[in-house]
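Hi W.,

Here's what went into the run:
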Amino acid sequence: MQPESRINRIIHHLQREWQIYVMLLPTIIWFIVFLYKPMYGLQIAFKDYSIFRGVAKSPWIGLEHFEYLFSNDQFIRAVWNTIKISALNLLFGFPAPIILALMFNEVLHATYKKTAQTIVYLPHFISSVIIAGIVITAFSPSVGIVNTVLEWFGIDSIYFLTKPEWFRPIFVGTGIWQEAGFGSIVFLAAIAGVSPSLYESAVVDGANRWQMMWKITIPSILPTIIIMLIIRIGNIMEVSFELIILLYQPATYETADVVNTFVYRQGLQNGQYDFAAAAGLFNALVAFVLVMVANTLSRRYSRTSLW
Amino acid sequence: MSGVQLSQLVKRYGDIEVVKAIDLEVQPHEFVVLVGPSGCGKSTTLRMIAGLEEISAGSVTINDRVVNRVAPKDRDVAMVFQNYALYPHLNVADNIAFGLRIRKTPKDEVDRLVAEVADILGLTDYLKRRPADLSGGQRQRVAMGRAIVRHPMVFLFDEPLSNLDAKLRSQMRAEIKRLHKRLDVTSIYVTHDQVEAMTLADRIVVMNDGLIEQVGTPMDLFLNPANTFVAGFIGSPPMNQFDALVSGSPEAPIAEIGDQRMALPSLPELSERIGSKVTVGIRPEHAQVLTPSEHLVHVQLEIVETLGSEALLHTTLENNPFIIKTETEGYYSKLEEVSAFSVDPAQVKVFDIETGRVFGQSGA
Ligand SMILES: Nc1ncnc2c1ncn2[C@@H]1O[C@H](COP(=O)(O)OP(=O)(O)OP(=O)(O)O)[C@@H](O)[C@H]1O
Ligand SMILES: [Mg+2]
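Here's what came out:
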């Protein structure tokens, strides 16, 4: 009786709301084709895979790839590099769009605001290849603007992109330059949703703009900030892979090689697909745990969560 | 003292004037209600007084000081907003204390003032709750608490009760009235609900299309409306109005509506109007159906709407809708048979058919 009526209810619901599910369909198909179907191939992380035998016929070898992975210095280094770059990204890259949004919110002159916004959104729409080209040129020891400026102050030119200690700051800085403007849109939208009467009431109470920002704007957009932070933490293992490939070179592997670039080199360049799949799976597992933890903590302490 | 004067106050948005050179004097301690239809410029006027809206021309004077160029915080006014404007992330106590903290009031003083206000408004048990966990009426009280805690010289209210249901609204209305008696602070209150205006105001300002139509005490506006607009706005239901031809003599003018005849008050202006049309106004309360009279005006009864002790008789008078308000006690069964009413000529209002201005009243 009970399960049947439930099925009836679902059928009834589908009959009534089918349009909504039709609209959902392209996204579901996209997920299946590009995310779920490839998961079938994940099993090679536990197999001695060879392209000639194919995924199904390759023999199982248990955790052998993982054992090898954790005894591989390069992999351990890549994990640490990922964590360090992500931590820096979180520390500097996460607040940047929020600060930018708060600053835009204080700009009263409409034309000036629009122009400034367009300028900071722009890098987002430029291909990473071009971004990397600009960065490489800017930091070049011979013609780069950075070294030119350093020379004015009598500092010898530095070949930044070959120095491991400079890779992280340059990479994180480039990421901010590329994405902070576009990322600020989410926060600007959240700010736009704050009722104007909250500010008017504060104006009558005597609050200045600084106080309004701290006491009204920031608390009001805090739920958005937390959601974005959860997403960000979930993506901590996903360092922007193209940009690293474009900017790093063997001289900077020491600080620049992350799990994704390691997987790329092992899998695609050296043809060790099974080993690379194991590394990728490990990466995904860590990311999964991080999202779960971040979401649970947030739900418990701030009543805001993704699910 | 802490009165408010508006002189030749204008608000323009581009080329459009939404407040058209209004003059108003609010006495210290007075409770003035701005009332008028939607879009007539009430909120705009209030917001210019608060300093939230730039003044296009004219001046606002608070406490004998022209405040056109004074920042809102220095005008010593407090405003209560229609949507409460409570901070969702702060609890009730912190919401009430917000303005005090902004002004760097010492902590123990803040605590004392918040406790005092919470006591006045009956919020003591809710101080630790967030606004989301309060009822509409409680939120409204918190909004009021935020205003009164600062002891401002002038309170400004912009439709503070319009988000509440009817019952709560009348309850809060009484509360605001009680609060004003107790605190005795000059108050300017905007509403488009004429019942709210009638019950709360010391004086009512009726606005229409950016202009002030009439200023007066509630009874003044009720008994002596300056024009057809005020007559049609004040009172519930508002005054019945219909066009009629003036006949008879200057001493005993008569209104002719179709076949019906009705005695009019003998007003000096009317003597020149004999033979031309005017607008006649009769309050629903002034039409008598229960006392026998020889000067009856016949109507067709359409519906009887009973409100308990009173009833509204929806009738037509020569195709003009005409509402009669009468008592029901002891007469209820007879109301279905009403076919005529009588009216004391002294209570009949006559308006110029062109300008809508009332006859027989100087000033206003
Ligand atoms: N920023 C603006 N730009 C142009 N016109 C405006 C602006 N703000 C208000 N108005 C116009 O000014 C007029 C008066 O608005 P106001 O808000 O004072 O009306 P109100 O009397 O308070 O009405 P309500 O009872 O609906 O609140 C309206 O016609 C409105 O369209
Ligand atoms: Mg309004």
